[in-house]
Write a structure and sequence with these properties.
six-stranded antiparallel β-sheet, alpha+beta, 9 helices
């Protein structure tokens, strides 16, 4: 409007009259902008000046968006040379460099305002004023399609595309986007947003006499890969757990909040620390072959749940007996029922405890333990009861 009184008049008028456009109710409120700048005044040159590099902002991002996903969306409109993704205050953004300017114009015309997935991940596309994208690494966050021989990351540290993102905030891009979609049938479990980018979780109210890093690993590795774990010196019953990415951290917070372990109710929240600095008091797990999500990620996501009374044992010796399983686990609580069975020629078992806490203790203490010469894997089962089959 021309001046503030005119804006106030307009707003007051529409506070009594419901405005509609083409039959849909619209709502009017003050903007935080003092004035609008048109594109030719815009110092960044974003907007209408065609360029072969596009700046893409993704709104309502319910699913993780990777370089691969963006390449699939944008490559039908021309040869994509480079993609860089990063997290800004505006949300998740990407720079996409085409070989030809006309390809970028065609892509923007075709895709502006469209959703990548049904009902979410909306594309907001502007022309960038950059001349050339700098890509140092080929990984989930950046890719140079003209140079496949770039390293995946700098030796000794994870990569952050130079200069494009907010300093130090590397969006934990998930190569497992397809695994997540496959696991949950395209949706997400109730209560999971899929938009969290904080990887580190703070666990408190731990029973210090009974818990160590490996036991926490056994519990949290049910929800994602563990990078490192650290107990806090100044708050001994607190520990930080750094997960593989924000989605895995969100699963852990969602499913473990309030779980009982060794007589204490766990408090599980996102930490203000983006990651745990390596040091003498940290335990490293990034290269552990006990991390579950490097293989069969979709299956592992599907099995994520809050602690249950039933646990599932796999990688058992072929000649194991139910008696041996019971004697291996019975110190953790009352075992109500067990069932040994074969799946794809491999021995597996279900063990039902009297309480969730007993089952949790068995997972925490006996996952990755040795039973009759085999390292066994234990997770929670969502089955309510053991059906007797002849």
């Amino acid at each position: 409007m021309q001046d503030i009184p005119s804006a106030i008049n307009a707003l007051q008028f529409y506070s009594n009259v419901q405005p509609t456009i083409r039959g849909r109710n619209v709502y009017v409120q003050f903007s935080s902008h003092q004035e609008l700048t048109t594109m030719d005044q815009n110092s960044q040159g974003l907007g209408d000046e065609p360029n072969r590099i596009l700046l893409v902002t993704i709104h309502h991002m319910l699913y993780p968006i990777t370089v691969e996903v963006l390449h699939q969306v944008f490559s039908p409109h021309g040869f994509v040379e480079k993609i860089v993704t990063f997290q800004k205050s505006a949300g998740f953004q990407a720079l996409i460099q085409y070989q030809l300017c006309q390809s970028a114009v065609a892509a923007r015309t075709a895709l502006q305002g469209r959703n990548i997935y049904d009902g979410c991940c909306q594309l907001d596309i502007q022309f960038s004023n950059l001349d050339e994208l700098q890509v140092n690494y080929n990984n989930d966050r950046s890719r140079d399609f003209t140079n496949p021989h770039l390293p995946s990351e700098q030796k000794g540290r994870t990569s952050q595309p130079a200069g494009y993102g907010d300093v130090g905030v590397a969006y934990p891009q998930m190569a497992n986007a397809t695994a997540i979609a496959a696991a949950f049938g395209g949706g997400l479990p109730p209560g999971i947003s899929g938009t969290n980018d904080r990887c580190t979780v703070l666990v408190s109210n731990l029973n210090l006499d009974r818990v160590d890093e490996d036991k926490l690993f056994n519990l949290f590795s049910l929800y994602g890969n563990i990078v490192r774990i650290k107990f806090l010196r100044n708050k001994p019953d607190h520990a930080l757990v750094q997960m593989g990415d924000g989605f895995q951290a969100e699963l852990a917070v969602h499913f473990l909040k309030g779980a009982m372990l060794f007589g204490k109710r766990l408090e599980v929240n996102f930490s203000k620390h983006p990651n745990i600095t390596q040091g003498a008091d940290t335990h490293e797990y990034s290269n552990s072959n006990l991390n579950r999500f490097n293989r069969n990620a979709a299956k592992n996501y599907r099995y994520c749940c809050s602690p249950t009374k039933m646990i599932h044992l796999s990688t058992l010796p072929q000649d194991i007996s139910e008696e041996e399983i019971v004697s291996h686990l019975e110190e953790h609580g009352t075992i109500v029922n067990t069932k040994l069975f074969e799946m794809n020629g491999k021995k597996q078992a279900l063990v039902l405890f009297e309480t969730e806490e007993q089952a949790t203790e068995a997972v925490v203490c006996k996952h990755a333990s040795s039973l009759a010469g085999s390292i066994i894997r234990i997770s929670f089962s969502q089955l309510q009861s053991i059906r007797e089959t002849s």
